[in-house]
């Protein structure tokens, strides 16, 4: 079976600052991979480049056989090859952010049906049925007529996840989905992600919740200064760090990951 995602020599610089320096990896269908590493290692930037919310400086990204390459032309300008596939990528990829990004003037149901109606062109009844099914999966169907301001942070993030689920993406990207939550609300969001992983969703997750990453991931990719320092199953990464950078990071978080 062909990989759902291929990332090859992904590079990203902001001015003179290099954030990604040639990241390469692949994902199979149903695989859960956690991107881990110290702050500033390029984890969130990698996610944003995969979905082309940030344009890479160079490299190639392939989603289910459709590829986009970014090259530097003879004038040293960034050129996107097969840019039309960006729209294809965004139909296949769902992304959950640190902030919830819900429309404050729309109900929970309205937030989830918005893209179904205006992007997928579903009629209102079908969109609402699909939205309620997604909300049920994250335990939020009973809150469908509330507004975001009436929800806790954990509830808002679960609605954000339902909004993505309703679009039935082939790949889900989670960028620190619990970082904006109070500690007592983190568990309810992690429970939803754990359920999705158990049901066979393909998930690329950026997280500092190392205990959770160790339990839910098929593989963990450690980024350090914009490169892949180690790509291994969780037990291999924790028991046999590939470098001093990995070892130092694990030593700093081991009390929460053990």
Q: In words, what does this structure look like?
A:
- With 258 residues, the protein is an alpha/beta fold.
- The protein has a single domain, classed as P-loop containing nucleotide triphosphate hydrolases (Rossmann fold, 3-Layer(aba) Sandwich), CATH 3.40.50.
- 38% of the residues lie in helices and 26% in strands.
- It has 9 helices and 11 strands.
- The strands form 2 sheets. A 6-stranded mixed beta sheet has the order 7-8-9-3-10-11, with helices on both faces. Strands 2-1-4-5-6 form a 5-stranded antiparallel beta sheet, with helices on one face.
Helices, strands, pairings?
Elements (H helix, E strand, L loop, with lengths): L4 E10 L2 E11 L4 E5 L6 H8 L7 E6 L2 E7 L5 E4 L3 H8 E4 L11 H11 L5 H14 L15 H13 L5 E5 L7 H16 L4 E4 L3 H7 L2 E6 L2 E6 L1 H6 L4 H14 L1
Parallel strand pairs: 3-9, 3-10, 7-8, 8-9
Antiparallel strand pairs: 1-2, 1-4, 4-5, 5-6, 10-11
CATH architecture name? 3-Layer(aba) Sandwich
Instruction: Give the SSE order as H and E letters.
Output: EEEHEEEHEHHHEHEHEEHH
Please state the CA-atom Rg, rounded to the nearest Å: 19 Å
Alpha-carbon distance between the two ends: 34 Å
**Number of DSSP strands?**
11
CATH-defined fold name: Rossmann fold
Residues in helices, as a percent range? 25-40%
Shape: globular
Sum up the structure in keywords.
258 residues, alpha/beta, Rossmann fold, six-stranded mixed sheet, five-stranded antiparallel sheet, 11 strands, ATP hydrolysis activity, ABC-type amino acid transporter activity, nucleotide-binding, ATP binding
């Amino acid at each position: 079976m062909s990989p759902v995602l291929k990332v090859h020599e992904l590079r990203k610089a902001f001015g003179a600052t290099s954030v990604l320096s040639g990241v390469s990896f692949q994902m199979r269908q149903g695989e859960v991979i956690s991107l881990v590493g110290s702050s500033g290692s390029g984890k969130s930037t990698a996610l944003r480049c995969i979905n082309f919310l940030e344009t890479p400086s160079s490299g190639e990204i392939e989603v289910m056989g459709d590829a986009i390459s970014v090259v530097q032309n003879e004038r040293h300008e960034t050129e996107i090859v097969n840019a039309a596939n960006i729209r294809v990528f965004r139909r296949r990829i769902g992304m959950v952010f640190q902030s919830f990004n819900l429309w404050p003037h729309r109900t929970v149901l309205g937030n989830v049906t918005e893209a179904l109606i205006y992007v997928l062109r579903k009629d209102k009844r079908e969109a609402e049925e699909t939205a309620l099914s997604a909300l049920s999966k994250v335990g939020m169907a009973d809150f469908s007529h509330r507004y975001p301001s009436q929800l806790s942070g954990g509830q808002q993030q679960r609605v954000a996840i339902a909004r993505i689920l309703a679009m039935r993406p082939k790949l889900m990207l989670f960028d620190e989905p619990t970082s904006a939550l109070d500690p007592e609300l983190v568990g309810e969001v992690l429970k939803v992600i754990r359920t999705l992983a158990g049901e066979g969703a393909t998930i690329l997750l950026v997280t500092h919740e190392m205990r959770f990453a160790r339990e839910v991931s098929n593989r963990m990719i450690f980024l350090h200064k914009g490169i892949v320092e180690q790509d291994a199953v969780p037990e291999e990464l924790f028991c046999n760090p590939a470098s001093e950078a990995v070892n130092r990071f694990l030593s700093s978080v081991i009390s929460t990951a053990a």
